């Protein structure tokens, strides 16, 4: 029985790696519109099995995923998101049935805790694979305090930066503790994240407000920096909003990748524009699949 379970897990890991390679390949070569045969070669599968595996994990076909990767899709999503965002912000929650509905709670450290610099806090960190590359994650008893894509950066550099942000805390490498957290955030085969997730963050009052607002942006939707500033009641603060978005310590769960430039495309992303594009396409594909599967 144990051997069978290990074999199944190894197969899942292998499939996970294949799909991650395919996502990165499609994003990097989207201007060339790669064929299914090319994607299959990257995945090390036949075209038939490539199509089936990719569709099962991502929620759509490689060809359809390519369509989600285009700038035209981002512009269209920006136009179409406004009515969804109106409802989301009016309700104080994200749209019904999507990832962040009552699923991610954000706790900001108190001023006293901020001054204490994490004294008494035990932070465990690890590095784990995701469909979008290796992710560095830090966890505490009170919640996730760090999540970032390494994007070629060394884990020790991320760990040193984490320790510098919480200089009085105990920061230690503990992948056995962080691995299950990443598995819940990025579960296998197109499943929804297995929250709820509790986040522990440190920031100014304005940064906290921006991050709380980001939690209201539904998966599959995007918002411009200017619109986010207006919804915060600070219409002239788009640049400051951008700074707060870029200071996000918990990527993906606080979805800073969903903020785009209104006139000039996707805009910047701390972990690379390629990864931002792939994240948005992946979410759009899953949203489209969920909408198709749900009766009207």
Describe this structure in words.
By secondary structure, the chain is α/β, with parallel strands linked by helices. It has two domains: 2-68, Homeodomain-like (Arc Repressor Mutant, subunit A); 80-293, Winged helix-like DNA-binding domain superfamily/Winged helix DNA-binding domain (Arc Repressor Mutant, subunit A, Orthogonal Bundle), CATH 1.10.10.10. It contains twelve helices and eight strands. The chain has helices at residues 2-28, 36-43, 47-58, 62-68, 71-91, 111-116, 155-165, 175-185, 205-214, 225-231, 238-246, 273-293; strands spanning 104-108, 122-128, 135-140, 143-149, 170-173, 197-201, 223-224, 259-260. The strands form three sheets. It has a four-stranded mixed beta sheet with strand order 4-3-2-5, sandwiched between helices. Helix 1 crosses helix 3, helix 4 (62-68) packs across helix 12 and helix 10 (225-231) packs across helix 11 (238-246). It is globular. The relative contact order is 0.15. The model is unreliable at 1-12 and 93-102 (pLDDT under 50).
What's the gist of this structure?
By secondary structure, the protein is α/β, with parallel strands linked by helices. The protein contains 12 helices and 8 strands. The chain folds into 2 domains: 67 residues, Arc Repressor Mutant, subunit A (Orthogonal Bundle); 214 residues, Winged helix-like DNA-binding domain superfamily/Winged helix DNA-binding domain (Arc Repressor Mutant, subunit A, Orthogonal Bundle).
